[in-house]
Amino acid sequence: MRPTLRTTVAAAALVAASASLAQAEIKIGVLYPIAGNGAVYGTPAMHGHNMGVDEVNAAGGILGQKVVSFARDTKLKPAAAAAAAKELITKEGVDVLIGGLSSAVGLAISEVARQEGIVYIATIPKTIQMTTTKLHKHVFRTSSHTDFEGDAIGQIVNKLGKNKVCDIQLDYAYGHDLAAGIEKGLAKHAPNAKKVIDLRSKLGATDYNAQITQILGSGCDVVTSVLWGSHFVNFAQQAKPFGLFDKVTYISGGEIASHEIAGKMGKDYPDNVISNTYELWYDHSFPGHEKFQADLAKRSGKKETAMWPVLSYTGVKFIAAAAAKSGSMDADKLAAALEGLTIDTPVGERTIDPKTHQANTGQFWGPMVKKDGVDYRVMNPVTFYPATLD
Amino acid sequence: MGWNMPRGVLFTCIVVLVALALIPMADSRYLIDISTEIMVYALFALSLNVIIGYSGNVSFGHAAYFAIGGYTNAILLTTYELPLIVAFPAAVLASGLAAAFVAYFCTRLTDIYFAMLTLAFAMLVWAIAFKWRSVTGGDDGFVGVTVPEFIDGRVPFFYFTLITVTLSTAVLWMICHSAFGQTLVAVRENITRAGFIGVNTRLMRGAAFAVAGAFAGIAGAIFAMYNRGVYTESAFWPESAQVLIMTLLGGMYSFFGPAIGAAALYLLERFANEYTEYWPTVLGVILLVIVLVLPEGLVGLFKRVKARMVGGR
After folding, report:
1. For the ranges A384-388, B27-31, B98-102, B278-282, which has the lowest average pLDDT?
2. Are A217 and A199 a contacting pair, CB within 8 Å?
3. Which of A117, A315, A317, B1 is most buried, judged by most C-beta within 10 A?
4. Which residue in the set A35, A107, A176 is minimally distant from B143, CB to CB?
5. Is it the case that residue A18 has pLDDT exceeding 50?
6. What domains are there in chain A, each with its CATH number?
7. Which of A36, A83, A104 comes nearest B139 by C-beta?
């Protein structure tokens, strides 16, 4: 009997020890589109996330515990994202949720966070609703939002001294929100500017000929837009033969100044485009960026890194800083610590507004110009627009 | 045949119901969540089978009625602050009426033309949900659905779903095994001959479509409250394709087959997503298996295995 008893006790002790080891982990639920069409955004976002987690672990983890990530594919579908978020909470027992891409997915995850009473940091979704009408105790956003983008566009229009504005947006929530943001930005910074024409294109549209001729016929001298990704690529290819970019200045949100777009379009990128991006791999305006970019380049396997990693990386750093401040991973304490929290990031200092739970995430704006020796456009000069609406 | 269930089926149903009712005792939030979702999808697939398995038509747009039920319930509960006793039946009625309206046009056609028209109407519903932003929230979705206090909790909501899905399934069973259901089978088997014996085949097919739409609306209304949100994707064609695959996987010539297919596909997707990012590949393999090996679904496979065992081969 004795050896059996001893063995049993030893086994029990081993199980208890492994259980306590297993508990000595901080679990982060990560929600990005990591397969299918959305992987073009989700994969670089995961690089940034993993880099942030590795750095945090190398520095001793969170509250002395190792950080472990549980990544799930949101499939760019809100219901799938909500189901994955619930699974991460109820099965994996994650302490915090992070990620999201589209506005709908971000809002769906936020709703789960509200129900389950867990902190969610939205690193990419931009919908203004998240930090206004749908704001709750446990949701925080570290990306920018459409009012910040619209405000920057208003400032740029004013600087250019242009008065006749054509606005072309995609006909979906982000487009509508940005159109409203631009209206506010123009009213505030360029009150003399008049909107000559309002155009709406279908999400996923590939044919812009009708809108191009309308813009050319309207006599405007500046076009404001948020045709992001392939929408802009198609628009630019079709507008170039009409000489549209020789006649107007094209100011766009939607991060078409990022290297993902500039690199993809190469020599086809048109003239007279002023746009934004969260990060530029070649711009080291802020301390720490050079090291961040070098590490990211190693991890990504290419020198010209994407813009998305800085967003997911910043989200992880906010969690680590909030946990250090609160001394706990309890959702309420973590949320309280995030309110008003300031951290350094590779693209400048970031502070989360205690009232709106929105980080003051500014963006880099500037004209996209040719550069000797490379076959893609770069932003020059690079101007950082801080996220302030005051 | 009548409404009475064969003893074996009744016994299995009671066992499954008791097992489901005991799930909250396991004190696993995860288990409660996946069981709730499976019940909703099971009802959704069962409703589609009224069209496919009983009336012999294929609908590529069944998600539309799931979405209509979801949006109507969500809007009435949240925007108009109506009680559940009003909002929920109204959602079911809206789905049923929408399905009846669509059926009026679709039943003029048969085969692939019928299927394509159902898809066209479903995309119309999707477009309305997408564009009518002030009411539906557009592509941001209708988020923050108000859930009545008495079911606002994981366990109460689970039992609410269990009771609603059980009652709905029982009613569907009675419909499918009534004279109406048997007439549908006659229409499915030979629409010309059914017409010759005096059956108004167009009316029968339309009624089946409306019934299916109403029960899809029940599933959608529950899902909107469960998710605290409804999204345009609920009406989009991949959702219609998914419920169609559930029905085929389980077996469309069996009443409970689609429910089994829904549970199997849901669990496969859930576990595949937890371990791999290649769910679309897994889904492709499932489709191939259905077409090549399981034309009568999992229930057909079970019957074949049982027959072989009983036959001693």
Report:
1. B278-282
2. no
3. A315
4. A107
5. no
6. 8-144+292-359 (3.40.50.2300), 147-277+364-385 (3.40.50.2300)
7. A104
The answer to whether the Cβ–Cβ distance between A35 and B280 falls below 8 Å is yes
Contacts B28 to A, Cβ<8 Å: 90
Would the ipTM clear 0.90, i.e. be above it?
no
User: Is B274 exposed, middle or buried (CB count within 10 Å of its CB: 0-12, 13-18, 19+)?
Assistant: middle
Give the pair of three-digit tokens for residue A248. Answer: 């107007």
The secondary structure of residue B106, as a DSSP letter, is H
Sign of CA dihedral A33, A39, A44, A50: positive
Q: Quote the pTM value.
A: 0.86
- Provide the token pair at B89: 């039946």
Euclidean distance between CA atoms A96 and A383, whole angstroms? 34
Q: From chain A, pick out residues whose CB is under 8 angstroms from the CB of B130.
A: 172
Q: Choose the mutation target among A31, A77, A105 for the interface with B, i.e. most B CBs under 10 Å.
A: A77
Work out the minimum CA distance from B36 to partner chain A, whole angstroms. Answer: 11
The Cβ of residue A59 has, within 10 Å, a number of other Cβ atoms equal to: 9
